Amino acid sequence: MRTTVAEDKDYRGKVHQLSRDIMTDWMTELKDATKSPTPSAYMMISGNCVEILRCFDILPVFPEVNALQLAIRKQSLPYIIKSEEIGYASDNCAYVKADVGYTMCGGVGENGNIPVPDFIVCNFVGCNVYIKWFEHCASMFDVPMIMLDIPFVREDGPSTDDVKYVMTQLKELIAHCEKLTGKKFDIDRLREVLGYSARAERGWSRCKELCKRKPTPFDAYFDSINMMGPINALRGSKVAADFFDQVVEQYEGMVSDGMGVLEDERFRIVFEGPPPYPYYRNFRNLFEAWGAVAVQSTYSTVGGTWEFGFTHDPERPLESIAEQMIIHNLCNRSMIERYAQIQSYVDEYDADALVIHSIKSCRLFSAGQGDMREYFTKDRGVPTLMVESDLEDPRYYAEAQMKNRIDAFFEALTYKRIRGKATA
Amino acid sequence: MSTEAILERCRALLEMMPGEALTEARKTHPDIGGLAVFPLYAPFEVIHAAGLMPVGMFGAGEQVEISHADSRFQSFICSIAKSTLELFLRGDMKSFEGAVFSSICDVARNLSSLVKRNTPDLYIEYLHLPQNMDSAGSLGYTRAEFARFRDNLSARVGRPITDEAIAESTKIYNRVRSLMRDLYDHRMRHSGAIAASDVCTVIRAGTRMMPEDFIPLLEALLDQVKSTPSHPRDGVPVVIEGSFCEQPPLALIDVIEAAGCLIKDDDMVIGWRLFRQDIPSNGPAMDPLGALAEAYLKHSVYTSVRYDRAKPRTEGLMDRMKDSGADAVVFAPAKFCEPALLDYVLFRKKLDEKGVPHLKIEFEEKMWTFEASRTELETFAESMLFD
Fold first, then answer.
1. Chain B stretch 229-288, residues whose beta carbon is closer than 8 A to a beta carbon of chain A
2. I want to staple A287 with a disulfide (CB 3.0 to 4.6 A). Which of A104, A292, B130, B373 is the partner?
3. Residues A121 and A220 in one domain
């Protein structure tokens, strides 16, 4: 049953290594900044405006990336428990708890790995927990918090009032950055930065597009993480743009060689929801064992839905930043729009099934996924599996139960396929 | 009308399903429709000016067995979201034009999508209420959001919603809010004048009747309460915090007071009594939507779902304690309520710094026994009384 992975050509490993290299460089910068006067600012991933910080050489820090790394390195639990000691509930988002616990234990600051930010940019894009998380950070560090209130998409598109509101707040952020750094805002610098963003975004889209091919050159859920760091945290840098040029080359090479991430691609799935980072490898193995590969995933679009054609426009710098924050990312769109996104993935990527990984921490993702399962199984006829654990807290992952559910699902799909052939 | 008769009427309204409350209102207001309002707030004046009764949607307590919504929402989702969805899935909300939700939390947002998908005949609105109170763009945006709501609602009911009508409705709601403030003030100053659970009963029932009918009821109640001599009660004066959305069972409120606490102030049904002052409703350049927007930005009471850089909620809680003469805080968040549970951390830090005693008790709709909470509350109150 176990399918071997195309490791001999080391394609997956190469992209992983490239990503790791540039992300490590950024983390080294963060560590160096703990002991230097380099200005830094906290920011959230979804629908961010990192380009504005880059214009002022303000180092962006993403607490979500910090939480993610703690989880994937299996270090999150002690920090989660530390936070619970000061009043966080077991039902609170464990990303917040891990990050706060890490800060309390000295991870942020002169002797840690992350600099204390000069200020906090709360890009409130969908997730309400962002606001609380950053209020807590602002309180811990006693630094100012700049609120960027991004209106949720609640009509077909953003209104002119929505865009105007966001633009005004972006200009206020720019004024704050000018004051902090003593540098004058340079629109040409922003245009240059946005040019790098657009190049990376085009690369991202091209890679995702390649997953329509059979076999798919990479797993659009598990391997997308290699691209998510660069597109969300390093976007607007030459390094990120160059990275995507290389990744496109890699994956295009694989496609022209007829090579997939799995040697025997048997099931093409669409993934919904964030992964269980503390058991990332284990979880992936449960799918690879069935020759199941993700051809698309909603989670990879939390920062931006680039594959639907949007790129930042250096000719319309602030307008395009505002539009990206409002509408071109998953988090600021409704469940109904997410259903449409998933359906387009199922149709355009010729997927066999939908897998929903429901996590307790993130209610933005998970609240109501039972309805999503209902919709796709009953209304759309898409075989759908829903499993539960968490993206950060290892206590919610039950391997045996998870394996049973996944095995039963793919056994049923296999049987359905055999029966379909027999009756054809 | 006697106090007991008023309370009986309010209790009867709370036992009704939202649709039954609307039918009840139609007995005296035959032409009105209904629009359900999920906590905390929507511009009620706009709904009322559309010829609709805004009806508070606070879940369904023990009245509804959850059979459909459990398969849509996971075990870690708050009960108000489940019972609200259940009411829509069961068809209980058919007599309404629809419902309005707002950007209070991630669950409420997704709930609005689920309701919209599963009840396509209803008008389901989602308001993005501002989280930036002091940007140069805040007022324009908030006014535009209220105008969008007005226009969508107008299209649904098929008639214009005029500025004059909104201004008239503002006057009515100003009166309602002013009377509610009076009731709270009176309870604050005269412990023993009215039980906290009775105040809750009346305030909650007020979300299930036309404001024109609520005004005389509140006036009569205030007359009664103010003219009846009260016997001051002993107890620890407390503020209840964290019950701004899902409402604690009334039996739990009784338990809090029976255990030795005197509730001086609280944040229950806070969205319906959000403003500490009247909203301007007349003048030469009358812009009622602008006035509503400005009130939301500048004159809202603090809540856990509204970020206000200039006035942090921790300061708001300290002010609430000072103004009401409370010595302690009882946190009563609904189980799984992320905004309340996250805010608890900041509140707790502040209270610890100030040396203010506090206790947290969680609740959920289906809760019917409060023995564990009672023991904790008694211990808490005793430790303070004999300190």
1. none
2. A292
3. no
Backbone angles phi, psi at A88, to 5 degrees: -65, 140
CA angle A383, A308, B101 (to 5 degrees): 70
For B248, the token pair is 């604690």
pLDDT in tens, B154-197: 999 999 999 999 999 999 999 999 999 999 999 999 988 999 99
One domain for residues A217 and A159: no
CB atoms within 10 A of CB B181: 14
Tell me if A152 and B140 make a contact (CB, 8 A cut-off). Answer: no
Cβ separation B74–A367 shorter than 8 A: yes
Closest residue in chain B to residue A136, using alpha carbons only = B346
Query: Tokens 């009594």 label which residue?
Result: B273
Residues A42, A112 within the same domain? yes
Residues A147 and A205 reside in one and the same domain: no
Shared domain check, A230 and A168: no
In chain B, what are the domain boundaries? 24-162
Residue A374 sits at the chain B interface (C-beta within 8 Å)? yes
| Residue A4, in any domain of the structure | no
pTM: 0.96
- Domain harbouring A316, CATH code: 3.40.50.11900
Residues A140, A273 share a domain: no
The whole-angstrom separation of Cα B128 and Cα B158 is: 24
Residue A3 falls within a domain, yes or no?
no
Let me know whether A115 and A180 are in one domain: yes
Which residue is closest to B71 within chain A, CA to CA?
A370
Considering only CB atoms, which chain A residues are within 8 Å of B339?
Answer: 128, 132
Q: What is the ipTM of this complex?
A: 0.96
Residue pointed to by tokens 């296999």: A414
Q: Which residues does chain B have within 8 Å of residue A132's beta carbon, measured at their own beta carbons?
A: 338-339, 342-343
- Of the candidates A129, A135, A375, the beta carbon closest to that of B346 is on A135
Residues of chain B contacting residue A136, judged by C-beta atoms under 8 Å apart: 342, 345-346
Cβ within 8 Å, pair B141-A162: yes
B130: nearest CB among A86, A149, A388? A149
Answer whether A367 sits within 8 Å of B132, measured CB to CB.
Answer: no
In a domain, A53, yes or no: yes
The owner of tokens 């009043």 is: A87
Report the alpha-carbon distance of residue A46 to residue A230 in Å, rounded.
Answer: 13
- pLDDT tens for the 424 residues of chain A, in order: 444 444 444 556 799 999 999 999 999 999 999 999 999 999 999 999 999 999 999 999 999 999 999 999 999 999 999 999 999 999 999 999 999 999 999 999 999 999 999 999 999 999 999 999 999 999 999 999 999 999 999 999 999 999 999 999 999 999 999 999 999 999 999 999 999 999 999 999 999 999 999 999 999 999 999 999 999 999 999 999 999 999 999 999 999 999 999 999 999 999 999 999 999 999 999 999 999 999 999 999 999 999 999 999 999 999 999 999 999 999 999 999 999 999 999 999 999 999 999 999 999 999 999 999 999 999 999 999 999 999 999 999 999 999 999 999 999 999 999 988 877 6
Residue in chain A lying closest to B338 (CA): A92
Residue A7: its pLDDT value, please? 47
Distance CA A372, CA A361 (A): 18
- Residue B132 to residue A169, Cβ atoms within 8 A: yes
> Which is more confidently placed, A340 or B385?
A340
Note whether A395 contacts B: Cβ–Cβ < 8 A.
no
Instruction: Tell me which residues of chain B, numbers 304 to 333, contact chain A at a CB-CB cutoff of 8 Å.
Output: 305, 307, 309
Nearest-CA distance from A192 to chain B in Å?
28
Looking at the structure of chain A, the number of domains it has is 2
Burial track B266-277 (b if 16+ CB lie within 10 A, e otherwise): bbbbbbbbbbee
pLDDT tens digit sequence for B32-49 = 999 999 999 999 999 999
Residue B378's identity, in one-letter code, is E
**Domain limits at A371?**
189-423
Put simply, the answer to whether B110 touches A91 (Cβ < 8 Å) is: no
Q: Which of B113, B145, B348 sits opposite A87 (nearest CB)?
A: B348
Q: Which residues contact B46 (CB under 8 A, 6 or more apart)?
A: B146, B149, B150, B153, B161, B166, B169, B289, B292
**CATH of the structural domain B24-162, one choice from 3.30.300.30, 3.40.50.11890, 2.40.10.240, 3.40.50.1100:** 3.40.50.11890
Q: Do B136 and A154 touch (CB under 8 A)?
A: no
Q: Are residues A70 and A149 in the same domain?
A: yes
Q: Is position A83 within any domain?
A: yes
